[in-house]
């Protein structure tokens, strides 16, 4: 999920208390139905019905939206629009800092990860969607750069790593991996350091991953997993930072990464028509540093795996939900965003 603030206008608190049969209900006078529905997909639901609580509710919802990187749902009754509320808190920014890891737990997890990394003969780094969603890319890049370990992305992690770096190895997606040698390298690795994994159907090319849990360490937004040991409450940001500050490249066995090219010149497609194999490598030559790439559900979602990005390209897709047509609204939002006031 992503951090979206969903603000919903609704009938007055008086209409709600009286259970009036407005079109905002299902004809039963129950105004709670839609907010209750949204509790299943939102990390916070704020019903702004009491002026004395509104400021706290808004601040809480915005903080949770940022920290958990998930949607929040805020209802605003018509009779609350012109109500004055306490405004002193506007002078102080909302605290958006993540909770710190317990120091002893964090030290222990880092020690465990270091032990396995130092012992591994062919370790690799695999970056996935939640590394992007939870904003730890600076920490990921610092670790990749310091260690020099072969670093791969999943389809939902596309764009997380600068694809011009020498240790960038391509996209790992089981049978859909690109370049072709990626699958063998990752699946034969004796230690996969997986950051922000989201092993959904499309993201794993139909669950075609063939990596062993015994050879895996997973870092997540609110816990870590080392082989079969779980460490709840160990957030990946703190673990990544301490791991990077502690580890030394010369104590690791870093293997060469496969070469990732756009394959335009090496393309052997002799078809007189434009094919997928011909098209997607050439998209990489069209792109520029800092571009935003939106791929529609379907062919583009999968074809973009074969495109090598310039630095700082942001890739947006619906690999998880497969929402057909989503790219239209996304492109519209991206077009309007630079025009909006800061």
Automatic annotation (TrEMBL):
Whether Phosphoprotein counts among this entry's keywords is no
The molecular function terms in GO held by this entry are: magnesium ion binding; pyruvate decarboxylase activity; thiamine pyrophosphate binding
**InterPro entries tied to this protein:** DHS-like_NAD/FAD-binding_dom (IPR029035), PDC/IPDC-like (IPR012110), THDP-binding (IPR029061), Thiamin_PyroP_enz_cen_dom (IPR012000)
UniProt entry tagged with the keyword DNA repair: no
Question: What UniProt keywords apply to this chain's record, in alphabetical order?
Answer: Decarboxylase, Lyase, Magnesium, Metal-binding, Pyruvate, Thiamine pyrophosphate
Q: Name one Pfam family in it.
A: TPP_enzyme_M
Name a biological process GO annotation: aromatic amino acid family catabolic process to alcohol via Ehrlich pathway
Report the GO terms under cellular component.
cytosol; nucleus
Do you know which Gene3D superfamilies this protein is assigned to?
3.40.50.970, TPP-binding domain (3.40.50.1220)
Essential cofactor(s): thiamine diphosphate
| Domain annotation Thiamine pyrophosphate enzyme central: ranges | 111-223
The record's listing under PANTHER family reads: PYRUVATE DECARBOXYLASE, PYRUVATE DECARBOXYLASE ISOZYME 1-RELATED
Protein family: Belongs to the TPP enzyme family.
Question: What protein am I looking at?
Answer: Indolepyruvate decarboxylase 1
Species the sequence originates in: Bionectria ochroleuca
Q: Which gene encodes it?
A: PDC1
